[in-house]
Amino acid sequence: xxxxxxxxxxxxxxxxxxxxxxxxxxxxxxxxxxxxxxxxxxxxxxxxxxxxxxxxxxxxxxxxxxxxxxxxxxxxxxxxxxxxxxxxxxxxxxxxxxxxxxxxxxxxxxxxxxxxxxxxxxxxxxxxxxxxxx
Length: 134
Known about the structure:
Blueprint: H1 5-36, H2 38-59, H3 65-90, H4 93-102
Helix pairs in contact: 1-2, 2-3
């Protein structure tokens, strides 16, 4: 069954709106990361600048520009990995657990509160309604 023009346009509007919302959410996440880890913003700026410089050199006939960019990108990736690992290492899970329990009053789930769900087709589950109470 083929879509009419109006149906197609409605689907495309929905798709474009979804893309717009996803783009806004991504931009918000990027702003949050930049505010918390300014070095990431600097790495992104350096990457953009170097890529643009490389493109100009390639268009200008520099045959070595691509290899030079690969080397620079490898250096930036290594620097990024180092900074990422530093951020990950700075997170103390024991401290988070202690604060969650003692300051926020959180507790571990009791056995009767845990609902297990097997879905062999996918590792993604989307909840459309509340779980039934047994």
